[in-house]
Amino acid sequence: MIEMTEAAMLEGLAEEASELAHAALKLARIFRDENPTPVQAAEAKEKLTEEMADVVLYSQVVRERIGVRLDKINEVVLRKQDRWKRRMSEGV
Ligand SMILES: [Mg+2]
Question: Alpha-carbon distance 58 to 69, whole Å?
């Protein structure tokens, strides 16, 4: 079995995050319909789903490896979610 270093895990996470960004931009391009692409929406959504899963998986592995507690992440998510809701309701 090959042991991944922390650096390799972080590089993997960064690569997957980049792939997720590309998949999101592709679907946005389809939705915007200003710059045609041969890729269909269903295919783009499937790719986005795969890349989201990759990021979730790598995030989990990195989190466990570098010792970030899940409850800490959940706490940050809830705080940001509240801030986002507040900004949306204020129109900011
Ligand atoms: Mg990927």
Answer: 15
Residue range 37-58, pLDDT digits in tens: 999 999 999 999 999 999 999 9
Instruction: Write down the pTM of the prediction.
Output: 0.88
**49, 27 Cβ separation under 8 angstroms:** no
Sketch the domain layout of the chain as residue ranges: 6-90
CA of 90 to the centre of ligand 1 (A): 36
Give just the sign of the alpha carbon dihedral 33, 37, 38, 39.
negative
The structure tokens listed for 25 are 């931009």
Position 20 pLDDT exceeds 80: yes
The rounded Å distance from CA 11 to ligand 1 centre is: 12
